[in-house]
């Protein structure tokens, strides 16, 4: 079982208690008829307080791509059901089970029955044999358009939202898309990284203690973000020839649109072993090569996805690049480290290239053990 980080619980519990503390007041109100009615009123007050928008005026489609997530779904759904969402809001949860060969769909059907304990929250479970997040998001975006929703968002099924994550992301998206529509088409959530210490060997612990847990910051976290469904439709949908969420971000920037960040937070694990960190680096380069193939070698793309890696150079030009990088500070002692970085880079790029040669239309990643 893939459980939430302990830090997620520490952060989320006070938010749950804060909302629940309003229940007694509403429960003893003469105007309310039952516990369910009191809870709905409490959630409606919380939603209005967080977003500034009445639940009855809230409209949003929330897409959850699911690909072989049987280990993550139970804890993911528990976190989702702890969200401060009133059933009076027009929120449509769309689970797109794509190319899965496990019991993900059955888990969703089983767990989502718990939603009805607290009202009629709308959800749809769709299954498709076509694997890939882009395909799942495009299916969800079509549903958002049919719902006439001006806001859609995604949540990755192996991450965890805090109780106020959805309303906070909706608030910022509503401000950008509805209140003051302009050139903003994507609103990102903030990724909060946790680490699984029980997956680390003594060597891993020593290395990460010395080097730290540096995480590459992408244009878009991918774990959770909101968008304007009409704009996605205008640009032809999410690119289905690349696996990285950065593809739609680069599409936006290339068209002169903007990406903004919200205060909404979503939790997930980062790779915590040297072996997994290497796999993650290979995966990163694989995604970068896909993006280069899709968009071409533009300066915008090079600076956006890999400013520190010369993807458009030969092996020997790359060696010269790393050597120059190590001697810019006139410290020749840095060269051995740069040589190691070059070897690691070339090895990872070779593996990524071989994967793409074997599966040119690859749409799913191999799982990283310490993050699952």
From TrEMBL:
Keyword Nucleotide-binding: no
Origin: domain of life: Bacteria
GO terms assigned for molecular function: glycosyltransferase activity
InterPro entries in UniProt: Glyco_trans_2-like, Nucleotide-diphossugar_trans
Residue ranges of every copy of the Glycosyltransferase 2-like domain listed in the record: 61-191, 221-297
Record keywords: Glycosyltransferase, Transferase
Entry annotated with the keyword Transmembrane helix: no
Pfam families membership: Glyco_trans_2_3, Glycos_transf_2
Family: Belongs to the glycosyltransferase 2 family.
UniProt-recorded name of the protein: Glycosyltransferase 2-like domain-containing protein
Source species: Candidatus Gottesmanbacteria bacterium RIFCSPLOWO2_01_FULL_43_11b
Lineage summary: Bacteria, Candidatus Gottesmaniibacteriota
